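Subject: Sanity check before I submit

Could someone independently write out the structure tokens for this chain? I want to compare against mine line by line before I put it in a report. The sequence has 476 residues.
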Amino acid sequence: MKNIGNIIKSLQNIMRKDQGVSGDAQRIEQLGWMITLKIIDDKDKELEIIQDRYESTIPSDLQWRNWAADSEGITGDELKDFVDFTLLPGLKNLDVSTGNKRAILIRDIFEGTNNYMKNGTIIRQVINQLNQIDFNVSEDRHVFGDIYENILKDLQSAGNYGEFYTPRAITEFITDIINPRLGEKVLDPACGTGGFLTCAVENIRKQDVKGVEDLKTLEATIFGKEFKPLPFMLCVTNLILHDIEIPNIEYTDSLNREYTGIGARERVDVILANPPFGASVADGVQTNFPLNYRTTESADLFLLLMIRYLKEGGRAGIVLPDGSLTGDGVKSRIRQHWLETCNLHTIVRLPNSVFQPYASVATNLLFFTKGEPTKEIWYWEHKLPENMKAYSKTKPIQKGEFDSLKKWWDNRKENDQAWKVPIKTFKENGFNLDIKNPYVAEEEQTYSSKELLSMLHESFSNSDKLLEKLKKELGG
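---
Independent answer below. Compare away.
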């Protein structure tokens, strides 16, 4: 039996020999578009058998089977020139005039794609390795799915791509709690590589999908938006691997549209998301939002957008940084709107290191339902496992760590990890949601005698300077 893990490892080792590919991000992008093209061709072959008169949207000469499948096929400069001057330009300029969704998706994927490899012989070696995987064999597909997850994880430490990967433990926990069901519209407006959407697909499939019609319903109700080319491509491929034939993923910036233009037809039942935070939005984007709520902080605008997209009674599980829970002015007005239009019933406070190495900011999981105002908010403080000082790439957060929270969820009582706060408190404090655990005393900072003496000396020195200054001003 072939070991797909070994195939991927040898792929990456082969690519390291190519002078054109520098660093993990480029290697993942290169591997990404090749895998995508192979998956699409394998799917096309399957559909040609299942559907009468099925025709691929990819022209014959650009189909994987016709230029890549033969291990003795074109190689060297001929292959490199084909990729650079025929294949990629052809896919970027696919005919989408008929409105064929699959064609649009493929065109959008390849619009932002580059071939970094400079050596056609090495390209052939990579292709031949990939040809050992058959994405129509369910065993191959599922094993590859796990490996794909690891490829996505590698993005965490590859350049600036960490923001597009949410730890699997978090996407699964939030999805379990929100529990989307068949027929409900599910949206992630900042879907990255598709972690939340694939969790939603699996959650629904496990409980509700009994046949082909159910699968069609599922496919028609999962939606995502992503505006960076690499995560967009990886998200589409991720969903295809989860049997979503034509993923409803838009290559677009969710924030770059008129807020008030989002009407009833676009409203959804469920939102699962970890929107970008700490980033400023593109110039002019904030003018899409009402004057009262304009800001350049992406997380705050995404929060407004998600509230807008939810139907009455719709529910959401999202990740937000501490910075979105505090602050005056526009931040406070956005939170007020949130608490007045939604029942923000639970905030799970996470340790700072959950998103390391990408970011060490404190983050929160927030669960809310639209259509009724918040009366009280329950808080749960997630603690690091015993004897662990911080999460890391090699020791990430684990799903089992949420077991005690799940037990508490439907039978809530205050304890040293859980406390509730009435709406009155928030109205009095400018809707500041950053409420510390009342059961944990602030840790007192301890100093050595030497440190205390030094601080005292500095304090006296500052006092003397101020006294001198005051004497001069008083003419003393």
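---
OP: Matches mine. For the report I'm noting this point. Residues 447-476 form one domain.
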